[in-house]
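Suppose a colleague, Dr. K., hands you the sequence of a protein chain of 209 amino acids and asks what its three-dimensional shape might be. Before reaching for any lab equipment, you can write down a predicted structure in token form. Begin with the sequence itself:
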Amino acid sequence: MPLIPEEPQIHESAQGPRVTPASGRTAPTPRPVPGPRPAAPPRPGRPGPHRSAPPAQRPAAAPTPSAKPGPSGPAAPATATAQVQLIPASPQGALDAAEEAVDLLLDSGRAPGDVLVITTGEPHPWATHELSFGEASYWAQHDAGDDVFYTDAAVADRAGSRPVVVVAVNGGPESAAVAALSAAHAKSGALLIVCGDPQRINAVLGAGV
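The predicted structure, expressed as tokens, is then:
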């Protein structure tokens, strides 16, 4: 089903997938959900005591819309309850849009372990950095389930389901976008966020993903 760019406000509901058209205006950055936040482990990419800092992310090609995540929710099949949200972004800015969405999710009280990020083009710097220590160490962090996990569309099927899946359509062949969106549909329990070019995403979704 084609998606329509929307005003970048991310929230969840129990009424199934839906996409709200955007008005073309950029929404102001929302305030975090009130109340104390539970202690959470360090975000991916922040060096630990035995690791060096990962490479810096590329700057966005253009400002990306802000998005307001909804409250936490239990994992469930995407076809049952997952809400779909589209954040328009160029291939060069899709990864930064995804990072902003993750930051807002965590600021709103989402547990880091609730979030899976899938890229279609260049891997996230954190994934590249962690894979330098070997696949066993990389996937052990996924299995621990206590932090945001970044993976590539080519191996996304290996990742488990999480309440929130964020897809950054940041380049790569069409087959990578199809694989990423297909995996995201299957693995998102409450919210699916897609960051990328709306025309390309609609074409992929229209192909039956």
